[in-house]
């Protein structure tokens, strides 16, 4: 996605409308949803071009560092972005800290993952600096609230991106091969590459989180700005 990409420019215009204080919350959400659809459409277009031989797209890796605090929760957000975009993740841990995450996928999809994660991490950081527990659980720590808030935020992002990707496949213009088959084959190729490299590793045990922030975070995630143009911003650590 370059600065001159017409799809990216259209996304910018939609998000500018969503950020206009004159529009209603429902209108802003509609603009943001359309932006998510265009991000998904970009991924399908690149996949179909590669499948037809009109473009090139190879499987590669992208390693993204994670910073404390909440490195595990940041890694969870990255995974929630990566999986709907047909990528896989490997967490590099040192004790309870996640030092970095390696993302496996096709180059065009890795670009989308990095762009969206950068934007969403900045949005989460900004909001976490403001939100506080609502007092429903006396004595609840701020850290526990923030962890569950991030969990809810990541879940909502995953749901939105999954719906957008499914709709992009469903509405793709037919070619020599259907978009559904192209996407399925690409997902299998990525999984095979991942298994070949790291198939002997075990999945991490599910986390048990305590805190009341999940619903607040989920609500924020449903309204998050899915703007890929924020790659030029500097990734900020959560405070």
Describe this structure in words.
The protein is mostly helical and 239 residues long. The protein contains seven helices and three strands. It has a three-stranded antiparallel beta sheet. Strand 2 and strand 3 form a beta hairpin. The protein is globular, with a radius of gyration of 18 Å. Mean pLDDT is 78; it is low at 228-239.
Q: Which regions have little confidence, pLDDT < 50, spanning 5+ residues?
A: 228-239
The pLDDT mean sits at: 78
Structural class: mainly alpha
Main sheet strand line-up: 1-3-2
> Sheet with the most strands?
3 strands, antiparallel
Strand content: 5-15%
Distance between the termini: 30 Å
Order of secondary-structure elements: HHEHEEHHHH
Q: Give the number of helices.
A: 7
Give me the Rg, rounded: 18 Å
Shape: globular
Fraction of residues in helices?
Answer: 55-70%
Number of strands: 3
Which labels suit this protein?
three-stranded antiparallel beta sheet; 7 helices; 56% helix; mainly alpha; disordered C terminus; DUF2786; DUF2786 domain-containing protein; 239 residues
